[in-house]
Amino acid sequence: MAERRESLHGQWSGRWAFILAATGSAVGLGNIWKFPYITGDNGGGAFVIVYLVCIALIGIPVMMAEILLGRRGRRSPINTMTHLAEEEGRSPAWKLLGGGGIVAGFLILSFYSVVAGIVLAFFFRTASGVFEGQTADGVGALFGSLLGDPERLLAWHTIFMVMTTVVVARGVRSGLEQLVRYLMPALFILLIVMVGYAMNAEYAAGVARGVDTPFMSGLSFMFNPDFSKLSGDSVLIALGHAFFTLSLGMGAIMVYGSYLPQNTSIARTTITIALMDTVVALLAGLAIFPIVFANGLAPDQSFGLVFKTLPLAFGHMPGGIFFGSLFFLLLAFAAWTSAISLSEPVVAWLVENRSLSRIYAATVVGLITWVLGIASLLSLNVWSGYKIFGMPFIDLADYITANILLPLGGLLIAIFVGWKMKKESVADELAIKQTRAFDLWYVVIRYLSPIAIAIVLYLKIFKVI
User: Fold this and answer.
1) Which of 30, 42, 245, 266 is found 20 to 30 A from 276 (Cα to Cα)?
2) Res 158: pLDDT
3) CA torsion, points 345, 346, 351, 354, in degrees to nearest 10?
4) Residue ranges per domain, the chain?
5) 344 in Cβ contact with 197 (< 8 Å)
6) For the whole model, what pTM was predicted?
7) Which stretch of 340-354, 392-406, 413-427 has the lowest confidence by average pLDDT?
8) For residue 435, what are the contacts with CB-CB under 8 A and spacing of at least 6?
9) Side-chain half-sphere exposure of 337, counting CA atoms within 13 A
10) What is the C-alpha to C-alpha distance for residues 336 and 24, in angstroms, rounded to an integer?
C-alpha cells in the first residue's frame, strides 16, 4: 500500500461536496447548449442511445480511472502523474498526460468563456424584452450584430472571466465548494421548471399554431430511435461529446479527485456524477425541443438552436420574457461551474511549483485565458475570413479539444491505469476487493476503453487532415 498523501489545497468536506463539484464541472454548456443541437443535427433518438452507451461503457470507467489517479497523487495533474509514474517505476514522460490535460483545459476555457459571455448578453437582452415579438430575421440580426461586434464580445468575455477568477482564487472550500453547494441545486430546480414550462408549450404556442402536443413530439424525437438517420460520424460525435460533457481528459476531474476524502467510494461517486450529468442533458433536450416544435421551428439548427431559435420562441410565448431569462440564467450557471473546474488544474500547479499565492495564481491563469479568448472572439468577426483546416479558430479549438485532445487524454489514462499501474495499486485505491464488478471494470479499462478511443482518434485525426 502506498503512503497516503495529503493535498496542499485542502479537500472537500464530504462525498456530496465532491459530487456537486464534479457534477458542476461536467454539467455545463456541453449539456444545455451543445447536447440538444448535436442531437438535432444527428437525428434525435438513435443518437441519444449511442451517446448513453458511450457514457456507460467508456465514460464511467475512464472517469473512475481519472478520479483514482487524482486521489492517489493528491497533486495537480502534472505533479500527480510525476509522482505516480515514479511510484510505479514508469517513465517520467507520463507527466505529459497531466500537461496535455492542462493545455486542453486552457483551449476549452478560452472559447468557452466567449460563448458564456454571449449567454450573459442574451440573459440581459431577454430580460429586457428585446426578443418580444421579433421575427426570425429580427432575432438573427440581433445575434449577428452581437457576433459582429468584437468590443461587446470582449466586454462579456471579460466579465465572465472575472467571475470565474474570483471564485477560483478563494480556494477549495471557501470558493469552489461554496459556489456549487448553492448553484447546482439551483440549476436543477431551474431546469425542472423549464421542463414544466415546455410540457405546457402547446398551450402557450402550439394550440395557436395548430401544433399537436409539442412535448410528446419532443419525447418522440429524443427517445424514438430512427437508426437510418445515424451516420458513422454521429457515433464519433457521441463518443467525443461523452468525454466533453464528463470533463474527462482535461485535468479537471483528476484535480477534483485529489481533494476527495480517502474513505469515499470512487465507483458509487462516479456513477452518481455520470447519472446526474446525463439527466441534465436529457432534461435540457426535453426543455428545448418541445418549445422548438411548439413554434413550428426545426431542431437541426446547430449553434443557432439556443441563440436564434429559442429567443424567437420565447419572444412569441406568454411568459416568454420570464422563462427565457430563466433559461439563459440556467445556462450561465452551468457555464460558470464548468469554467471554474477548467481553471483549477493549472492554478493548483502554479501554487505547488511556483510558490504563488492562490489569488495571484488564479489571476495569472485568468489573464492568460482572457488573452487566448480574444483569438476566439475575433474569429467570429474580424478574423472570420482566416481559416485553418477549413475552420475558424473557435471551431478548430472546439474540434481539436473535444475530438482529439480529450479522447487522447482518456486513452492515456486508460493505458496508465490498466497497463502501467500494478493491479494491486488500482484495487487498493478503489478500495474494492477482487470481485466480479472490479474484474469487469478492469477488463473494460484495459481493453474496451483503449480500443474504442483509439479507433475514434484515428478516424477523427484522419478526417481533419
Assistant:
1) 42
2) 97
3) 150
4) 15-464
5) no
6) 0.87
7) 392-406
8) none
9) 36
10) 9
Give the C-alpha separation, 383 to 36, whole Å: 28
Task: Tell me the C-alpha distance between 453 and 456, whole Å.
Answer: 5
Residues 6+ apart with CB under 8 A from 278: 52, 55
Residue 193 pLDDT > 50: yes
CA distance 371 to 180: 27
Closest alpha carbon to 123 in 166, 160, 72: 160
Q: Residue 210: its pLDDT value, please? A: 47
CA angle at 154 for the pair 148 and 155, rounded to the nearest 5°: 115
In sequence order, which residues have a C-beta less than 8 Å from that of residue 455 and are 6 or more positions away? none
Q: Which residue has the cell 439556443?
A: 306
The DSSP bridge partners found for residue 391 are 388
What does the alpha-carbon distance between residue 265 and residue 432 come to, in Å, rounded to a whole number? Answer: 9
Nearest-angstrom CA–CA distance, 288 and 299: 9
C-beta separation of 67 from 50 below 8 A: no
Q: What is the 3-state secondary structure (H, E, C) of the chain?
A: CCCCCCCCCCCCCCHHHHHHHHHHHHCCHHHHHHHHHHHHHCCCHHHHHHHHHHHHHHHHHHHHHHHHHHHHHCCCHHHHHHHHHHHCCCCHHHHHHHHHHHHHHHHHHHHHHHHHHHHHHHHHHHHCCCCCCCCHHHHHHHHHHHHCCHHHHHHHHHHHHHHHHHHHHCCHHHHHHHHHHHHHHHHHHHHHHHHHHHHCHHHHHHHHHCCCCHHHHHHHHHHCCCHHHCCHHHHHHHHHHHHHHCCCCCCHHHHHHCCCCCCCCHHHHHHHHHHHHHHHHHHHHHHHHHHHHHCCCCCCCCCHHHHHHHHHHHCCCCCHHHHHHHHHHHHHHHHHHHHHHHHHHHHHHHHHHCCCCHHHHHHHHHHHHHHHHHHHHHCCCCCCCCCECCECHHHHHHHHHHHHHHHHHHHHHHHHHHHHCCHHHHHHHHCCCCCHHHHHHHHHHHHHHHHHHHHHHHHHHHHHC
Q: Which fold has domain 15-464?
A: Hydantoin permease (1.10.4160)
139: nearest Cα among 320, 313, 371: 313
Backbone angles phi, psi at 100, to 5 degrees: -65, -40
Q: Tell me the residue type at 333.
A: F
Question: What is the rounded CA–CA span in Å between residue 63 and residue 247?
Answer: 9
**Best CA proximity match to 333, nearest among 120, 93, 68:** 120
Mean pLDDT over each residue of the chain, to the nearest integer: 84
- Residue 391, phi then psi, degrees to nearest 5: -130, 145
User: Which residue type, as a one-letter code, is found at position 247?
Assistant: S
